[in-house]
Amino acid sequence: MSVFCTSPWIPPEWISAYGHEPRGVWTVSRPRASASCSEGICAFANGCLEAAAARVEDDLFVFDSGCDQMRRAFDALAGHRQNAFLFNLPATGQSLAPRRIYRSELERLGRWLAERGGSVPDTPRLLQVIRQHRDARLQLAAAMEGYSARQCVQAVAHYYAHGAVWVPGNFAPAPANSVPLALLGGHLPAGGGDPLDHMERCGGRIVLNATAAGERALGSEDEAEPAIGSAEDAVEFLTRRYLENSIDIFHRPNSRFYQWLGPRLHARRVRGIVLWTQVNCDLWRAEAQAVREAFGRPVCLIEEEAAEGLSPRDAGRIEAFLELLR
Ligand code: SF4
């Protein structure tokens, strides 16, 4: 069965090992939001609800607890859909308690997947799938700088659909005088292409896509060879990998996000930052000032209203931002 996850911090390899097909819901086209976001739900959470309503009942949905919106979306869905699961992602550091929570969530997810047609994997299968995903992420992370912004999104989407690396063809590099930009935030609109194309048309060049549709979704992978001699070891490995290497702002403190971002902004000579948020997303909006202060670069804050792509107002804002930087 297809298992649509709302967060890159729920291991696709765990789902795959149970014989299901993991998909990142943020990488697939979501239906246009039919409801406005005035009910306090952001466009992304709303889009996930719409996606769940549009899919066949056999598809499974795994929501995460990273923010209030997602928890509320899950509550709204769970009332009328059986095949939905809420994965509790610990927001605090790496002490014993969050590790225990994450471990028990993985085990609970495993039981849930097995009850829905999955087969409990043996140790060789776990090792094989874990290795395959780790190698794919390492390979992708190393290749990202050579991809165009659109290719980066396509490569991440391919990984979340197939657990494998997609090697794009050549692309025409942006003109040398274009402005190097970083794109930050949670989720791009369905399909993802509009904002990227618009920024490039206006004279920008996205050298770092730090949204869930870009390289941030790969986490910061370490190269340690998984030492897995039992299912217990696999759970421990995934717990460590996902608690220590996920890059997000809902963590408290969220210094790992800044530590990951800083060297990349510097190495890629980023001159401006576009922070892509959604109306009702307090989490990302609250980072705008902190990002400005931490990195001393201008920040253009975009608040997407509905998962329908770039609004004329936001398009104008991006254009004005790039005018300033040129
Ligand atoms: S966009 Fe913000 S509010 Fe919406 S799901 Fe993501 S983190 Fe939560």
Characterize the structure shown.
The chain has 326 residues and is an alpha/beta fold. The protein contains twelve helices and eight strands. The strands form two sheets. The protein has a four-stranded parallel beta sheet, sandwiched between helices. Helix 7 links the parallel strand 5 and strand 6. Helix 2 runs parallel beside helix 3 and helix 4 packs across helix 8. The longest helix is centred in the middle third of the chain and has 21 residues. The termini are far apart. The structure holds iron/sulfur cluster.
Strand order of the largest sheet: 2-1-3-4
Estimate the global geometry from the Cα principal axes. globular
What is the arithmetic mean of pLDDT? 89
Helix content: 40-55%
Quaternary form: single chain
User: What structural class results from the helix and strand content?
Assistant: alpha/beta
Q: What's the main sheet like? A: 4 strands, parallel
Estimate what percentage of residues fall within beta strands.
5-15%
Q: Total number of β-strand segments?
A: 8
Distance separating the two termini = 49 Å
Order of helices and strands: EHEHEHEHHHEHEHHEHHEH
Poorly predicted tracts of residues: 33-38
Q: Note the total helix count.
A: 12
Rg over C-alpha atoms, rounded to the nearest angstrom: 19 Å
Ions, cofactors, ligands: which are bound? Answer: iron/sulfur cluster
